[in-house]
Amino acid sequence: MNKQDLIKIARKFSIDGNITNIDECSSGHINKTYVVEYKTENNKYKKYILQYVNTDVFPNLPELMKNMKKVTEYIIKKAKENKEATERITIKVIGTIDNAQDDIYNKNWRMEEFIDNTTTYLTTESLDMLFEAGKAVGKFQRYLDGFEAQNLYEVIPNFHNTPNRVKQLKEALLNEENLNIRKERFNLAKDTIEFLTQEERLSKTSIIINKLQKNVIPLRVTHNDTKLSNILFDKDTNKSVCLIDLDTVMPGSLVYDFGEGLRTGITTAKEDEEDLSKVLIDINRFESYTKGFLSQTKDIITKEELNLLPLGVWMMTYENAIRFLADYLNGDIYFGVDKNIANHNLIRAKVHVELLKQMEEQEDEMIKIIENISENKNI
């Protein structure tokens, strides 16, 4: 889309000032993102995020935006009650002029404030930053404790319903068209398929969802995509600022948010690292992240949730492995792939399989770490 068309769209949002520049951001698998700069009346410059939302993934933007508004307003309210600063505590959604909200949302556009002097990371080698990442995810949970999660729309039904993800993988495996047209892919993925479909792993996939359905663990507001790249860090201090990308905010389990954060945080390897010898779990990273997370959630987390935290890390890693594998077998129709990387989604799945192997080996150590941290009254 050319800049003039983007300017016309940006002008539908309620911003005081004149647009001076629009740049496209290359990050993100799902949505088209632009940074819009405005010059205000007092000659200051302020930036905003303009996004075109992928309706193949998020077919109902009005519902999604209602979720975002409810959650961000609740976070700000809670922070004010705690006499905490609210300036960068969460993203802030920008409204439209002339009550054009439904019109612009139905055309799949939205705008939010750009949070200055922040950055994101795909991986980090700093244990202090892993603590900060866990703290950011834990703080999100703490602020939203007490929010009636059932009042949110389920914008992607069954998003973290792992048995349903397994069903989708099985459908890809049984699809005769896939098998005939993409026989080479099935052959290349043979070992990955075998590992992920072993009964000992399949039998674990329903544990969390069953406990939610039976009210053994509480239904909470969950971000559901707490990977490192969705956490803003202050450029000067490297302290965590807040979670971004609230598209997948829905009802769920606190365990999901903990697990998804450590899926990417437990290793320095890239999600698509081709050299599997570099895919190594660092238990110190697990410990640092867990300390940060529990420093914020120690007063709200239940004993049952605490016991499920190691499984949450395994589950989110397993779930992403089967999602990447299913997409690979289906012909790369969901996740964006780099055409310069052969079998990109299979590489991603293999990385997650390697992580799963090491998680299974170190599960007892993870349990001990959580027990020790939770018993420490000074976290």
What does it look like?
By secondary structure, this protein is an alpha+beta fold. It folds into two domains: 3-116; 127-375, Alpha-Beta Complex (Aminoglycoside 3'-phosphotransferase, Chain: A, domain 2), CATH 3.90.1200. It has helices at residues 3-10, 61-81, 101-106, 127-143, 162-174, 176-181, 183-188, 190-196, 199-202, 207-213, 254-265, 283-297, 303-329, 344-361, 363-375; strands at residues 18-25, 32-39, 45-52, 109-113, 118-119, 220-222, 231-234, 240-243, 250-252. A four-stranded antiparallel β-sheet has the order 1-2-3-4. The protein has a three-stranded antiparallel β-sheet with strand order 5-7-8. Strands 6-9 form a two-stranded antiparallel sheet. A hairpin with a 6-residue loop joins strand 1 and strand 2 (32-39). Helix 4 runs antiparallel to helix 11 and helix 4 (127-143) packs parallel to helix 12. The longest helix is centred in the C-terminal third of the chain and has 27 residues, at 303-329. The chain is globular. It starts with a helix and ends with a helix.
